[in-house]
């Protein structure tokens, strides 16, 4: 019997392959902005922490994650090794439990882009559909054609080969089954992992997850998706939608290499990409927001040594079957597969996510990106649940307001309510605006695409698309020539009462909204509260309905607020409930949420 063939890192084997063999670009050794001549930098990337929960800890997923979060979040990503295994493998579930399962793949170029006006990268659909075993056979053939073996290579060896290929590749491509709707967790009642709370089909809607309040299915956000890859299939640098957490389970097959940048370094990461990866000519505008918009396409892949060179913290993980990878809010991440494998992922949130969600909501509005989840609704609903539960446990020694999750919900809620009370007070002084009760479903602002949950402006005559209160439009009229009307929630008094209760407990000290400050004549206090509120700051740079780029001055807004406070001399704002027919029942075009997770171009 002949000796088995061994592949050594750095050597290129001959033979045909669907992956381009390493070849120097254009036949020269021209330097590029990605210095990959020495791949020893791969050894300088530190590993993220790995956790081994006991079966008891495993029974309470979000409690365990909140326990490790203070340490693990510093790395952006972490690995969790499951103490229990699935009884039914992914192949069995997808072929036996899910009949006629097929999926389409993305076609991914195996090269690094210059990211200038002449060269960018897109991932296009291949147009081919595979069964699970058909794609497995293709992936195994591709692996053997390159390495002349069926496996057994070290992760460091594959990592170096991947980046060498990305640097010198020309026309090679790989296929990746990405964002495939479905789950490979078994429905068998005897499958321990399938019936556990770590089954990703139920993970986003666990009791402690705010996403349980989303009343519809959103693939990838509330419902998991499958990711079926082959050698060098990659997921480009990106951050999760709305800065949510994500959890990825490796069902079977070859390992994956992950790279993660902690959330605290996200801004530094975006600046580095803007300055050292993208060419300014491909960005319509400059700044971190434009880098964020481009990265959101999920096609930007570059070596992590760019981060090392510019002092951006980056960490690494090698994920194997039976292991979970957690990405934390606003943590950029990327990676690639070492061969055929099947993974599954879904988003989730914990109470400490709300401040990140607020930041994402503001950024989406600035960029006019369509939201996937109604952040404002989730915040208000969760805050009301906290308010009702805290009212029942006032006599307890362990006060809920002393906990970090409580503060993470209450502070953004108080800021939001401060903004609405200030805006509604200003609008009330206009003789041309009327207020009506709102019992309709979710609506989207036609200017910035923000969800309008608490209040919005709408023409009661033509019922055009609603406009949120983050725009200075009171002096303006609708396109039909009539003035806008204000629609507010029927339960706004309950929201106000909750805000007053939270403020009385002084959860957020001087940084948060005081209801009485809206009706105070103390100018310095008013300026302090309004300028310290991120929602109010955002309004100062938002455009108008007729002039989207126009900006209003914060000092003028403060002066208007003080003037109205003196004129009203009232303790709280109460709008008359002049009920009109439901907005939702009228014949007008509706803007609804994009309920599918954003895919690559």
From TrEMBL:
Protein name listed in UniProt: Lysine-specific demethylase JMJ706-like
All copies of domain JmjN, residue ranges: 48-89
Essential cofactor(s): Fe(2+)
Domain of life: Eukaryota
PROSITE patterns given in the database record: JMJC, JMJN
Lineage: Eukaryota, Viridiplantae, Streptophyta, Embryophyta, Tracheophyta
JmjC domain sequence ranges: 195-365
Record-level GO BP terms: epigenetic regulation of gene expression
Cellular-component GO terms for this entry: chromatin; nucleus
Any GO MF annotation of the entry: oxidoreductase activity
Keywords in alphabetical order: Iron, Metal-binding, Nucleus, Oxidoreductase, Transcription, Transcription regulation
InterPro entries: JmjC_dom, JmjN
One Pfam family per UniProt: JmjN
PANTHER family recorded: LYSINE-SPECIFIC DEMETHYLASE, TRANSCRIPTION FACTOR JUMONJI FAMILY PROTEIN
Name of the gene encoding the protein in the UniProt record: LOC106753585
């Amino acid at each position: 019997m002949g000796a088995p063939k061994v592949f050594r890192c750095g050597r290129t084997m001959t033979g045909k392959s669907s992956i381009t063999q390493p070849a120097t670009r254009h036949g020269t050794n021209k330097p590029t902005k990605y210095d990959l001549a020495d791949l020893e930098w791969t050894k300088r990337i530190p590993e993220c922490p790995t956790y081994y929960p006991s079966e008891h800890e495993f029974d309470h997923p979000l409690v365990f994650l909140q326990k490790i979060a203070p340490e693990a979040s510093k790395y952006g990503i972490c690995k969790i090794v499951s103490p229990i295994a699935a009884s039914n493998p992914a192949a069995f579930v997808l072929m036996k439990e899910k009949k006629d399962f097929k999926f389409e793949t993305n076609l991914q170029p195996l090269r690094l882009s210059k990211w200038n006006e002449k060269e960018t990268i897109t991932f296009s659909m291949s147009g081919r559909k595979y069964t699970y075993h058909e794609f497995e056979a293709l992936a195994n053939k591709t692996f053997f054609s390159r390495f002349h073996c069926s496996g057994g290579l070290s992760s460091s060896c594959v990592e170096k080969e991947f980046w060498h290929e990305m640097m010198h590749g020309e026309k090679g491509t790989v296929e990746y089954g990405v964002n495939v709707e479905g789950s490979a967790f078994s429905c068998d009642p005897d499958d321990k992992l399938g019936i556990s709370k770590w089954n990703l089909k139920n993970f986003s809607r666990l009791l402690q997850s705010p996403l349980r309040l989303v009343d519809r299915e959103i693939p990838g956000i509330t419902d998991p998706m499958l990711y079926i890859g082959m050698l060098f299939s990659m997921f480009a640098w990106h951050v999760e939608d709305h800065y949510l957490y994500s959890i990825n389970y490796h069902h079977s097959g070859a390992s994956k290499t992950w790279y993660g940048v902690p959330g605290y370094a996200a801004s530094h990461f975006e600046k580095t990409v803007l300055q050292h990866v993208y060419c300014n000519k491909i960005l319509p505008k400059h700044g971190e927001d434009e880098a964020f918009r481009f990265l959101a396409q999920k096609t930007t892949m570059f070596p992590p040594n760019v981060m090392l060179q510019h002092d951006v913290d980056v960490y690494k993980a090698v994920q194997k079957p039976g292991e979970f990878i957690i990405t934390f809010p606003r943590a950029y991440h990327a990676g690639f597969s070492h061969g055929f494998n099947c993974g599954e992922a879904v988003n989730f949130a914990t109470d400490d996510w709300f401040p990140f969600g607020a930041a994402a909501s503001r950024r989406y509005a600035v960029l006019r990106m369509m939201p996937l989840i109604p952040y404002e609704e989730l915040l208000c609903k969760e805050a009301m649940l906290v308010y009702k539960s805290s009212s029942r446990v006032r006599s307890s020694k362990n006060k809920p307001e002393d906990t970090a999750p409580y503060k993470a919900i209450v502070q953004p809620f108080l800021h939001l309510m401060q903004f609405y009370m200030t805006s509604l007070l200003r609008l009330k002084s206009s003789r041309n605006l009327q207020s009506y009760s709102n019992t309709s479903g979710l609506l989207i602002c036609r200017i910035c695409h923000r969800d309008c949950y608490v209040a919005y402006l709408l023409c009661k005559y033509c019922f055009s698309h609603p406009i949120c209160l983050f725009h200075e439009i009171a002096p303006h009229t609708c396109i039909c020539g009539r003035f806008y009307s204000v629609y507010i929630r029927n339960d706004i008094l309950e929201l106000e009462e909750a805000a007053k209760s939270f403020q009385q407990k002084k959860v957020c000290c001087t940084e948060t909204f005081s209801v009485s400050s809206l009706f105070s004549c103390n100018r310095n206090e008013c300026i302090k509260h309004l300028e310290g509120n991120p929602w109010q700051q955002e309004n100062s740079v938002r455009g108008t309905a007729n002039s989207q780029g126009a900006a209003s001055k914060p000092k003028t807004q403060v002066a208007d607020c003080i003037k109205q406070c003196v004129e009203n001399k009232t303790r709280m704002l109460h709008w008359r409930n002049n009920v009109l027919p439901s907005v939702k029942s009228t014949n007008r075009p509706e803007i609804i949420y994009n309920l599918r997770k954003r895919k690559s171009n």
